[in-house]
Design goal:
- The chain has twelve helices and 21 strands.
- It is 38% helix and 27% strand.
- By secondary structure, it is an alpha/beta fold.
- The chain starts with a helix and ends with a helix.
């Protein structure tokens, strides 16, 4: 059975059969072709058996291994690779079929190449998961054939490898590098303006491009004969919580990724940046119930706790209870904190239902309500209307877009900080708002 499961016929063999069939048909009109056709038949049979012998005379004709990371990063392009080598003494033609996890719904994976004895080759490809969870890679199938290309032998390697898909670790590492190198404060990465200084004085240093010219120390400049500036140190160890709504409003997908996953990726990257800047970070998820709560701590190892909690978050198809959220915050978060609330409001009536609870939280904390633009509606608004139905659709889209901006104005009227953002810009806009609040000394 093992032999039969590994034994395949190459497509070229069927071409040879087609030629033989044509010879037999033509021999009806050309009698001399009939014995030639039989001779070719016996030659093909001999080559068939010889090709099978070549492939099965080596018990271990091929080696191959799939190289997977310990974790895949959600919503990012993750590079993978397959390494393979042959022990056959002839040039081997191979086809690689990797059984990708069912979540990718990809059934046309194939890579064809040739390889000589003693040579190791690497085939690199990439995958982009859009859901968190366990991804199981099936068998790595490698089909080998000789230069005759009559028979193929299948080799099976590495069955059922499971790799978990976590929130965007690649995105977190990107912003981690910017935080360490202090590039988050360079022009173009944060769109804020420092208003005054509520930070403690740290040192006098030489002016570099990007420093606020208002901090120039003229006495030190005159003494050293080049520009010197005062450097201030932000207040540290301030508690910051990411509040993630897991209700039905966060189920909406954009670019194959749910709003919840955008919020999760932003929470991970932002928490890492805040920890590197010596603030305490925590998180809370809620819908009808409080699903998880991580108290704010200032330890870099605390990021692993947040990562594991984010990995297991799922959306619910119910309306979220903001009253329960307020009660939990009032009971568990006793110090004035920065609260980043990831949610979504599609109608101003939905906002007004939750406004009393938002105002109650904003009374004791700095609350930032983060909700999303509907990018598909914006694309519809940007297109030209060519008929009456298109005008109707565009008018409705503009009405919904206007409601989003009105909701933002309504929250700002009550002194609540807001971020209205495209899903793909969520992380950088959240970090910008955090840096702005720190610069203004609001917490």
């Amino acid at each position: 059975m093992h032999f039969l499961r590994s034994f395949y016929i190459h497509n070229t063999f069927f071409r040879y059969l087609a030629l033989l069939s044509a010879c037999f048909v033509l021999s009806y009109w050309l009698p001399w072709l009939y014995p030639v056709a039989w001779l070719l038949t016996w030659v093909l049979l001999g080559l068939f058996l010889f090709d099978a012998y070549l492939l099965y005379s080596h018990a271990k004709g091929l080696e191959a291994k799939r190289k997977l990371p310990q974790k895949l990063s959600n919503s990012d392009v993750n590079p993978l690779s397959i390494q393979f080598a042959t022990h056959y003494p002839f040039k081997t033609y191979i086809s690689i079929i990797d059984e990708l996890p069912i979540q990718f719904q990809k059934r046309d994976f194939i890579h064809k190449t040739s390889i000589i004895k003693g040579e190791w080759k690497t085939f690199e490809y990439s995958v982009r998961p859009v859901d968190r969870g366990e991804y199981v890679f099936g068998s790595l199938n490698v089909y080998a054939s000789s230069p005759l290309k009559i028979v193929k032998r299948r080799f099976v390697f590495q069955k059922d490898q499971m790799v978990p898909v976590y929130p965007s670790i690649i995105q977190m590492q990107h912003y981690d590098f910017l935080a360490i190198s202090n590039k988050l404060t360079e022009f173009g990465l944060k769109k804020i303006r420092r208003i005054g200084h509520t930070q403690e004085f740290e040192q006098i240093k030489e002016y570099v491009r990007g420093d606020d010219f208002r901090t120039i120390n003229w006495k030190a400049t005159a003494k050293h004969n080049h520009l010197m500036v005062n450097q201030y140190q932000d207040e540290k160890s301030q508690p910051i919580y990411s509040l993630i709504d897991t209700g039905r409003v966060m189920k909406m997908p954009f670019n194959e990724l749910k709003l919840l996953d955008y919020a999760i990726n932003a929470t991970l990257a932002f928490s890492n940046v805040a920890l590197k800047r010596n603030d305490k970070t925590g998180m809370l998820t809620f819908s009808k119930n409080i699903e998880s709560f991580v108290p704010a701590l200032q330890k870099i190892t605390h990021l692993n706790t947040i990562l594991e909690k984010l990995y297991n978050i799922t959306t619910e198809f119910t309306d979220s209870d903001f009253g329960l959220l307020y009660a939990h915050i009032k009971r568990k978060v006793t110090h004035r904190s920065l609260l980043l609330l990831y949610t979504n409001f599609e109608h101003i009536s939905g906002l007004k239902r939750q406004l009393p609870f938002l105002l109650a939280m904003a009374k004791h904390h700095v609350l930032v309500v983060i909700f999303f633009e509907n990018t598909e509606l914006e694309e519809l608004i940007a297109t030209d209307a060519e008929d009456l139905q298109a005008i109707y659709h565009k008018t409705i889209a503009e009405k919904f877009s206007l409601e989003k901006r009105l909701m933002q104005k309504e929250l700002q009227r009550y002194g609540i900080q807001t971020i209205l953002t495209k899903p793909e810009d969520l992380t950088i806009n959240t970090i910008n708002k955090y840096l702005e609040i720190k610069a203004r000394g609001l917490i």
